[in-house]
Design brief:
Chain lengths: 300, 367, 368
Amino acid sequence: MTVDQADRIEREIAESRVGVWRRFREQPFTGRFLRNRTAVCALGYLVLLVLVAVFAPWIAPHDPDAQNLGDAFADPFSAGHLLGADNLGRDVLSRLIVADRVALSATALALGVALLVGVPPGLVAGYFGGWVDRVVMRISDAVQSLPPLIIAIALIGALGPGLRNSMLALGFIFAPNFIRIVRAAVLEVREETFVEASRSIGTPTLRIMVFRIIPNTLPPILVQISLVAGFSLIAEAGLSLLGLGVQPPSASWGSMLGDGYNFLFQQPWLVVFPGVAIALAVLALNIVGDGLRDAIGRGR
Amino acid sequence: MTPRTPILDEDDAPALFAAQDLSVVFDTRRHGKRTRLRAVDDVSFALRQGETLAVVGESGSGKSTLARGALRLLPSAGGHLYLRGKEITGLRGRALREQRRGMQMVFQDPYSSLDPSSTVVNLVGEPLTVHDRLTGHARRRRVAELLDQVGLPPSAVDRYVHEFSGGQRQRIAIARAIAIDPALVVLDEAVSALDVSTQNQILELLAELQRRKDLSYLFISHNLAVVRWVADRTAVMYLGRFVEVGPSERVHHHPAHPYTRALLSAMPVPDPVVQKQRRRIVLAGDPPDPLDVVTGCPFRTRCPDAMDVCAVQAPEPAPVEGGGWAACHLVPLTGAASRPRTDVTPTMEEIPCRPASPAASSTTRST
Amino acid sequence: MTASPTTHDAVSDATTVRPVLEVRGLFVEIDTGDQRAAVLSDVGFSIAPGETLGLVGESGSGKTMTAKAIMGLLPRLTARVTGGEIVLDGVDLLGLSTKQLREIRGDTVAMIFQEPMTSLNPAFTVGDQIAETVRRHRGVSKKAAWARTVEVLSDVGIAAAERRSRSYPHEFSGGMRQRVMIAMALCCEPALLIADEPTTALDVTVQAQVLDLIRHMREALGMAMLFVTHDLGVIADVSDRVVVMYAGQVVEQSGVLDLFRRPAHPYTEALLNSMPGVEAGPRGTLLSIPGQPPAAGDFPVGCRFHQRCGYAAEECTTAGIPLTVVGAQETRCLLHTDLPSRPPLVDLVPEDEIVPEVLLDAEPREPR
């Protein structure tokens, strides 16, 4: 190779360097997702929820637990209370903001447990097959054949009540789902010619797993994550609504909904805002899930 | 019982790669019964440095299995494999991966053989990372050079494969295969999925790389016409065995085995006169199920020249005039099953060919 | 129709019979998600009764789109016919309702596909499926339909047709399945058979059988055929006349002998040159067409082939090139007649296959 050629190649690859954003747009899966405007908006809303949860104490205009009976049942847009105040005069907006934190961390806990317990066995079962696969799948079948409520009651019985333990139980209940989905995805990707091509190159198994198989099994896992997240969110709201979740005075969308229900005739807005918050978050998760599912396709 | 096939035609140069009595067996179920399918049955061949050996056969002949068996991507049920004189048959794990540096593969379908979620630099750079521990900028640079060698712009490094056409993807696959300077490249139907116009570009590229790097190719194909241009020698495979091997020109012009002749005969030639006037052999039936064990010659169930002896005894490889051998009972009797060239074969001038006349425009319209 | 001097009338005048199928100025657009792209522009040709028209082109040339448009099988959501006429036996198919189309499909015009499994229902026996088609179009009794089914299955060379008609599609091998598909297409003796790459998925030895069968059935039924393929060898084998498509346009239309002896369009010439084995002594150079075929929506201005054409001149790059008549041929090229004539490819077949006497007698007949 002449010096000229080498220079030209050096220059061309320097010029061709592309940013992360363009990579995302060109990558087949993320690219297809990004072209779906509705899904991107929904994803934006979820990101916003996360940001609000992280910065909740700084964003909330009032102390969410501060009672001010003078403001009790204040209407939305009244002085000092953008979304009104509840029966004890606590600021609804501030309580919604801290409740967001509760909702997301509960969801994250359930998801985290499900992923931690579900993904590694699924990967191993799918890639190695044989007796490993059979053992993993039988255990997973056994767990799935128990009624979820029994598992929940057993776990809570062992660990004690409380929102955290409820979500932990939820995570365990969802784990077999992840085992199945990951295993199915790995089984499919494992048979792809590009995996055989990597083997023909002499790439070690672990490397094939990390760089070829896992990236291609991500899309279905992401779809499942969005579904499980939506379910966990509703479960948390439901438990709190029934008084089994967060304990007063802490706020949760579910408990706010429950409290507001008692004062439906004094101030109907008290049920509207937490209800809308729950609905929007779950809707956004479902839209993102649909968008992810639509974006899966053979990268051709 | 099974014929032992000779390793080389003219055995003087040392083989770069050799397979001796290679067998690949699959355990399958058929009608609920466990059956062993001998997809590759005692096949032997040797490749010299810089040589191209083509393996031609129909689907189910075992040619792709042979390619994978030779590269140890499938476990072999018997036989020996040698790369540069070193036996690689029993190697496992790291020792086998080391040997893969010397032998690489290009697959048929450039759509499924390249990971869609990966950029070109990560695909072409994979062998560089694995074998040369090359990373970062050095790897990027080397990938760009390789892309340049296969006729792609170096700026393609950060792109994803879905942005490329079939021919361009096959170039990426080739760049990947030659990245670590292997001695042997197995091309498994590497141009079959491409359009004719791109097919030739890739064939030219492969020929140029072979000249420059002294590569040996094992070229698997179903198309005898493509093989004729590419390969020094051609092996014809039927039901897991080689039935004829010889210099490509000889195999093409004077096929010795009835199956080779039938294969050539079945390929339509892009010339209406030649195609309509040629003496053609049309085989009856489909290629048999490899699970049906045929006694004697495997081809006898479809062979137009089958004799009584074919059902009883498997033919031994017999030398053919013009080089190579064929496993057919007819060959030792006739020297070659093919008729020798007649002196009356027409030259191009003798065949009437309407001259292109520019004056023939609108006047001849009312024929 | 555009102003281009297309000449189907001239061609059909020569035959004087009313063509079975006439496609005039067909335009089709597809929705690629980001934009609407024209995949067919001004496609036109006609097929005389009993004639086989070969439609040849590479992937993306629009040949399959054309076949689908004729059958009314374009994907409803993404593709749209934006102009032209498809006249079958005097009726413009584009004006028909879905119901009327369904009556014509399988009756006057039938189609066979590359992958027979996709057009056979795996849940029913092949006999049931063929008998159903016969009953729908002929309105005959169950018994008569079944008799016809067995007859047509044995016509296409299926041994023990009576028994095999009670088999399910998966019980047949690839070649046999293609025979079943042909039987299904021919059960109502259509006037026109559209064959879309019917042998591409088959092994060569099986392809030879199926081609022989198609040729035989066409002669027996006297039907016209549109044979879509990318393989010029198959074209040489089956067709009387050939339409060459490139980038959504017809670039050449010639009798089969003319096409192979003196192609009128540089693309045809390049395609012939790149056939495997053609330009080759051993290790001779291969001629390949540089670059890639343009994608729909990205067709170049002027002649769509000019970027890859060895003869391209300044004038080829500015305006669209009309289809012009040159002798008995049509070409979408300004060069008209200057391409060299080509010798017969005797070299491509084993020597003992050539029958010298016969070949010498082979006076190139006018295909029409």
